[in-house]
Design brief:
By secondary structure, this protein is mainly α. The protein folds into two domains: about 250 residues, no CATH class; about 120 residues, no CATH class. The protein contains eleven helices and five strands. It has a three-stranded antiparallel sheet, covered by helices on one side. Strand 1 and strand 2 form a beta hairpin. Helix 8 runs antiparallel to helix 9, helix 9 packs antiparallel against helix 10 and helix 10 runs antiparallel to helix 11. The protein starts with a helix and ends with a strand.
């Protein structure tokens, strides 16, 4: 009988060890689903962004092409004006280059000054464009006349002052007037025809690009759709393979859960038939008869096997502390409980009724510190596990009332010990209120514990249905 019971207990222990990995598996599978959803969202976001970019690019291209086509209407006149201005400038430059400076054309300038001007690069009317007065090159002698060369800086020629510089500039201006009068005022027909051909060719090119813009955008859109389809197909293939593997693993866990329930049924029946076989085996069989840890199923993922039917056949529950609340994932105890905890810690150190010149009775000094220490330890025992991630949950019902009752009780004790103020009546009222609150909180916790005990009946050997 001991050997058979040990075999059942060891088998149950091995299955429990294997089933303990199910929670990690479910968490990993949920993380996989989250990653798959995130990758799909990224693909869809990239696809939408690509379509938006293609649409904006097409609109920008069409707007630019239409603007260029509309600008071609005045482009012909602008190019003809530019070509005519260039033609007149070249004609004037050629005419000025043909006007050579001689002594007979400018009064007061002889052959010596002609040679001095030629030495500075001034031989024709095209070689200079203006004259002006400025300080002498050596800074002495006052202002002198400078001649501004067309291709260079200004130069000063000794012997050319105001009386000779003005006739020189007038000769240049008269040559410029004659050149402008002889310059052409219309473009030749062949040049106008060439400009018209350029404008027509540009218009044809822009219209062709405008007609090809929708096709180019459609090609880019088709490429974006193809990339999205390929990415989603890869994700779907990988997700399907991972889902099949997860379903197989989940079915294995469900089969192990059913097997564990069957073994617990056999162990419970063996205990009912043959009774107790010893203290060491009794402890092991009590551990083996604990209920199967339940793992919350993933939303939207049906289990390949349903262990619920098998669980209905056996009702085995471990005796637990019914005064504590079950952990509730995502719900933690409030940090505000630190306030009463710190108050009771302070009261443990300084006591009550001992501030100022008051001296409390030794019994009250000891009793108040013990009560504050007990309240601190109880609150820490209840609060610390409920702020952790794995064991998070709300504080038990009635704890607040109990804490308020202890706080008012300590306050009333301090008021009774106050010798200078007449607060005896108030202290009595506070004492009654403290007792009511403490008893109400204790009753609430007891009722809550009884409700939980009614929902989870326990027995030493378990009940087989």
């Amino acid at each position: 009988m001991r050997a058979e019971r040990r075999r059942l207990i060891e088998s149950i222990g091995a299955l429990r060890h294997l089933l303990s990995k199910r929670r990690a598996f479910e968490v990993a599978d949920q993380r996989r689903l989250n990653h798959e959803a995130k990758h799909r969202n990224r693909v869809e976001a990239a696809h939408d962004k690509a379509l938006h970019r293609i649409h904006e690019e097409r609109a920008r291209q069409e707007a630019s092409l239409n603007h260029q086509l509309n600008a071609l209407d005045g482009e012909r006149e602008r190019q003809e004006t530019q070509a005519l201005a260039l033609l007149r400038r070249h004609s004037i430059e050629r005419a000025l280059s043909g006007e050579h400076l001689t002594a007979s054309q400018v009064n007061g300038i002889g052959n010596g000054l002609i040679r001095s001007l030629a030495a500075q690069g001034i031989r024709t009317a095209a070689d200079f464009h203006n004259v002006s007065w400025d300080k002498a090159p050596n800074g002495k002698g006052g202002d002198v006349l400078y001649i501004h060369r067309t291709k260079g800086d200004k130069v000063h020629i000794n012997g050319i002052g105001e009386h000779r510089g003005r006739p020189l500039l007038e000769w240049r201006q008269s040559a410029l007037s004659r050149a402008e009068a002889r310059a052409p005022h219309k473009l030749p027909p062949d040049e106008r025809h060439r400009i018209a051909e350029i404008i027509d060719a540009e218009r044809v090119r822009l219209r062709k690009e405008l007609a090809e813009a929708p096709q180019t955008a459609e090609t880019a859109r088709a490429e974006a759709v193809r990339l999205r389809t390929e990415a989603l197909d890869l994700l779907t293939t990988a997700a399907g393979q991972a889902a099949r593997l997860a379903a197989v693993r989940r079915a294995e866990f469900d089969a192990m859960a059913e097997r564990l329930l069957d073994l617990q049924s056999q162990l419970s029946a063996h205990v009912d038939t043959y009774g107790d076989v010893g203290r060491r085996v009794r402890r092991a069989q009590n551990r083996a008869l604990r209920p199967i840890p339940q793992t919350s199923p993933l939303p939207g993922i049906p289990s390949p096997r349903t262990p619920g039917d098998a669980a209905a056949r056996v009702s085995l529950t471990k005796v637990t502390d019914l005064t504590d609340s079950h952990p509730v994932p995502g719900v933690r105890a409030s940090p505000g409980w630190l306030v009463p905890i710190l108050y009771f810690c302070l009261t443990t150190v300084v006591g009550v009724g001992e501030l100022g010149d008051n001296t409390a009775h030794p019994y009250l000094m000891i009793a108040s510190r013990l009560v504050a220490l007990t309240a601190t330890a109880e609150l820490l025992r209840l609060w610390l596990p409920r702020i952790r991630t794995r064991t998070a949950g709300p504080m038990p019902d009635g704890t607040g009332w109990q804490t308020s009752g202890v706080f008012l009780a300590l306050t009333a004790a301090g008021m009774f010990e106050d010798e200078k103020s007449d607060v005896f009546g108030v202290a009595c009222v506070v004492s009654v209120l403290a007792a009511v609150l403490f008893l109400a909180g204790t009753g609430s916790r007891i009722v809550k514990a009884d409700d939980r005990a009614g929902k989870n009946p326990t027995s030493r050997n378990g009940a087989v249905s």
